[in-house]
UniProtKB/TrEMBL annotation:
Biased composition (Low complexity): 217-237
Organism field: Laodelphax striatellus (Small brown planthopper)
Signal peptide limits: 1-20
GO function term, MF aspect, one: metal ion binding
Keywords: Metal-binding, Signal, Zinc
Zinc is among the record's keywords: yes
Domain Peptidase M12B as annotated: residue spans: 337-581
Name of the protein in its database record: Peptidase M12B domain-containing protein
TM region positions: none
The Disintegrin domain, residue ranges: 598-703
SMART domains, per database record: DISIN
Pfam families assigned to the protein according to its UniProt record, in alphabetical order: Disintegrin, Reprolysin_2
Residues of the active site: E528
Amino acid sequence: MFGAIGNIAFFILLVPYIESANRLNEYISHYEVASYARDDMQRAHQRARRSVTRDPSLHLRFEAHGRAFNIRLKRDLHVFGGDLRVVDSHHAPVHVDTSHVYHGHLLGEPGSAVFGSILDGVFEGKIISSEGGGAAYYVEKASRYFPPHHTNDSFHSIIYKDSDVQDPYASIRHGHGSGCGITDSVSQWMEKIQNSAVEEDEQIEEEEDEDDRRNTKTNSNKINSDTNTSNNSNNDNLGDDDKVILGRKTTKSKLPKKVLSANDGEKGAKKKVEKRGGGGGGGGGGGGGGGGGGEWRNDRETPFDKYSREANTRPYYEDGYATRSKRAARPKEDNRNTCSLFIQTDPLIWRHISQQVGDDPEKTREEILSLIAHHVTAVNYIYRDTKFDGRIEHRNIKFEVQRIKIDDETACQGGGGGGAGDSPSPFCFENIDVSNFLNLHSLGNHEAFCLAYVFTYRDFTGGTLGLAWVASASGASGGICEKFKTYTETIGGLYQSTKRSLNTGIITFVNYNSRVPPKVSQLTLAHEIGHNFGSPHDYPLACRPGGTPGNYIMFASATSGDRPNNSKFSSCSIGNISNVLDAIEDNKKRNCFKSSEGAFCGNKIVEAGEECDCGYDDDECLDECCYPRVISEQEHMKNQSARGCHRRAHTQCSPSQGPCCANNCHFIPAYQKMRCKSESECSWSSACDGRSSQCPLPAPKENKTRCNEGTQLCINGDCTGSICLEWGLQECFLTSHIIPNIDKRKLCELACQNGTDPDTCRSTSEFAEAVGLPALDAYSLHL
């Protein structure tokens, strides 16, 4: 009896604890419970996993924040590449199951989006509504925030709005802005490295595990105990000659004239920008200078060496905000828009996640895969919806994970380099400052990938959340697609050379001893990749407007995240990134992008899942019958159900669907007798019939009608038949076996044979005149 009373008392105490204490932690000011039957969800997931159909779907429904969430989910087959390879600390392949990763939408809300994962019947991810101004919600496991005895089958998930996420440490960060680890000293060091590349005429080879092991082993053995105290330095001496850099291979030599000294770095970078003028997409350090990271200081009023001249002086302003020039961009000639990713997770993040799942290795890997999928998908939503149009159109930029390396605790017990006698992985050292951590990652050969990132759970000084090398349209090395090559520098008066991959970056998931919420880490990843693509921090004022619209992704200080601009790129960032992408397209920089598969709304091609496709936005869409990919707020107000690449209300068709749709959005009637296809050699002309936007199939001409200058025959309306069919013969191929000592040039001539007898195979040139074939040159070459 007392036990029952105790349970009732516990329930009474627990419910107020969950429902009334709306503040979750220092980051999240309000949360609510997402309640649904997790057992039912797990069974639905297992059914979808075993389904023989390619796109099995499942449904999730719950209520919170004064509304109902009715979600349709299906497996996400895009975030991980078809050739995904996952390895452990010792580079051994690991079998993983990615069926728990999902994406979908809210039923009844066109334009909404959902992505996340389902583990043990619990959904975790992000919900983007198309209502209420596009409000976004994050769903997380309650066990991340509450002790085990406070969670159960009815209380397993929490949900909160993105507008309820604040940065409690924004006011105490010094020199690290929004959590990006680019201080002035870090920027100077990075600029010197990026401007010191030794160009080599080496053929790019695929990265092999042995190369990776060799690089890791060679460089990690150079780490000494002194570097473990570098966390206390806060990077103050990174610009000095005596700075210790992890794993650096040194060579004594005289100082080359082109290598900048520590005292000349700032001056040299400025001279280089002035000489290049408007050529750089951000320079090595951002827009014009040497690279580093696009840092600017509050006491520097005109950081002109961080931007291209074009981005700084663009005089296009509307309503106080900078906009891109309206010049027409040239369409790309191919569909290479996918950036391949190598993601490595270090032992510290393994330790953190493993403790949450009861030290279960399989569940830890599943959680890590989910973490990677959530962040890459979040970045995809930002980049694919941005038009990076310079001289060339760059649309639908997206990221695909190609390889993952998961370092577990065994990496810290020796063998981290791949052999039993190797030293522990250098990533096991906890007190590594952010620049050394990035440098350590950059020592590996990652040129087989567009970008290579390390995810860690280490509390960097100064509130740092990430760091990455900045791309430049010309001049400095670094950023997307960069090769593994040699860089020079001087340390302690010695000339040193080190091979690095500068297509790298890092992010962490802990800040001031608190786990950062997904919203913060996802925007951090988007921010750091923005550096890799060529954008420094936002400057001038037109590109950091503040106020109600808020600042943009590349703003140098923390943003609240709930303003319209917080998940967008400014026109300055777009300008710098576009310059880098233009340089890649012009073969001035290495192009490592891969071709995209699947439909893309906004490319003016009607593909699977689309009713029409008139372009990306209102500027491109000249079709009154179709919605573009990006729908304006005015159109949403007129029609709440408006969807991109779908027809507008009360329309019958769109001209993008076919030639038989008129500009008034109706089928062209048959009485107009409008010809939509001309007569060809094998088919008659065709006219619109008033029943479809597509041109009706034309009537075929009689089979065996000669076509292709009399060398082929029409079959069912197409010029595909062999001329041999006209005489009841079959086409064959001449060989030296059939006709010994034959002139090899005759082997290319069209030949016919009786039935299936190869011995009767003869060139048509032998009887061309007799049967009225055209001159020899017109038909003899069969290929």
